[in-house]
Structure formats: C-alpha cells, structure tokens
TrEMBL record:
Gene3D superfamilies on file: 3.40.50.2300, Winged helix-like DNA-binding domain superfamily/Winged helix DNA-binding domain
PROSITE patterns in alphabetical order: HTH_LUXR_2, RESPONSE_REGULATORY
Protein name per UniProt: Two-component system response regulator
Keywords tagged on the record: DNA-binding, Phosphoprotein, Transcription, Transcription regulation
A biological-process GO annotation: phosphorelay signal transduction system
Keyword DNA-binding: yes
Protein's organism: Amycolatopsis mediterranei (strain S699)
Residues annotated as domain Response regulatory: 2-122
CDD domains reported for this sequence: LuxR_C_like, REC_NarL-like
Gene Ontology molecular functions: DNA binding
Superkingdom, natural source: Bacteria
Residues with the 4-aspartylphosphate modification: D52
Amino acid sequence: MRIVIAEDDLLLREGVAMLLRAEGVDVRAAVANADDFLAAVDEHAPDLAIVDVRMPPTHTDEGIVAAVEARRRQPGLAVLVLSAYVEQAFATELFSDGGAGLGYLLKERVGRVEEFLEALHRVVDGGTAIDPEVVAQLLTRSRPDSRLERLSAREREVLALMAEGLGNGAIAERLVVTDGAVHKHIRSIFAKLDLAPADRADRRVTAVLHYLRDTAGRGPVRR
C-alpha cells in the first residue's frame, strides 16, 4: 500500500508517518502544503492520501480543495481527511463526488491506533470511514424539517454506524441484534430518505450525505 501524507503540523506528520511505517506501510511522501501534496500524488500515484483539512498559506480549505483535485487527477484514489474538529461543510464537499474510498476523521483518532488503522484499511478497500464524533454531532444538529426526522431512534443509530463505515454484520454485533434486523432497518432508512433501489449511487453513502448536506453551511462544529 503506497501512501502520501499532507499535514502542516510537523510532529503529527512525522508521527503518522512513523506509525504507518512501523506497520509495514509504504509511506512515499510526507509534505506540509497542498502544492507539494499534489506534486507527490502525481509522482508516486499512491493508493491512499492522508490529508489535513487546513494547510498553508491561508489555513482554511486548502486540504479539502487539494483532496478533491487529487481524486480528479487520479480517479479512485482513496482519501482519508484529518481535521481538528467537525467541519460539516468541508465534509460535504469531500463526499460530493460519491463517497467510495473516502474517510473523515478527527485528529485525536490517530492516537487510537487500532481504530485509525482499521479506518485506513477500510477506505483503501473502497469503503467509507466517518468519525463517530462527526456522525453524532451532525445527526443531532439536523433541522426539524429534515428527512432524517422520519427515522426512528434505532434507525438513526443504524445510520450513524453506517456512516462510520461498518457493514451489516458489524452493526448487528454493535447493537446486539440479528443481521436480518439490521437489513430491515437499512431498507426502512432508504425508503424514508427516498433512495430508490435503482439509484446508481451507493445508497449507504447517499444516506450519509443527506445529513451532511442538511447541516452544511452553518459553520464548524467545535468541540
């Protein structure tokens, strides 16, 4: 697995690189700004890019813009974005092209090594990984007239776990229910969010996008 890291914080950048190399991961480049990141993507054609949301020179959305551009240049590139706090507008921008092979984690998750590595591998394999804290905050901030209000409490739990990237079996284990019950809840979620079976997009990702888009534009959710 070839990885490129873009993070302007030297300690975090080198720390993540050391962690991944210790796990046998091929870290091809670890850079501090968006321009060097895109150059590294062009040079190394990585399987995964780990990108900070905010990077020089303005420390606003350079990371997200660069991540979107990197996926345009290299279709299918897996991207795992790191952020210091929940920024739903940026999360929505990242996932706007479909969502396969994408992740959005809070930086504190890096310290939980097993969870971080699990999310990394899930994204490389074409899945999604959204930080549980991101999911929780965005779900609780949805507007009263949102389609999400149609969901039952259990369906919202299932959607939150779907957003983290868990499959049906893992959701069943987490909620201590049967796989059949999870399948039934997911079908109900799709129906209540008006996601038809014939939709070309991944309906699991689209369901997550509903609440990301619903909460976008209200500014960052700070911890």
